[in-house]
Amino acid sequence: MADRDFSTAISKIKVPMLILDQKWHRLFALGGKPEEVKELEAKENELIKREAELKKEQKDLKKVKENLMASVMSNMEGTSDLVSKKLDEDKRLLEECNARIEANDDELLDLPHQTDEVNRELMLRTMDYCYDKLRTNSNEAEEITNWIKDVRVKLKKNVIRKHNREINNKEIYSYMHDVFGMEVLNLFDMQNGDFYIGIADDKASDDAGKGKSSNEDANNLSNVELEDVDLDAVAKETKESSEETVEESVENEETPSEE
Question: Which residue, among 28, 30, 20, has the nearest Cα to 128 in the 3D structure?
Answer without folding.
Answer: 28
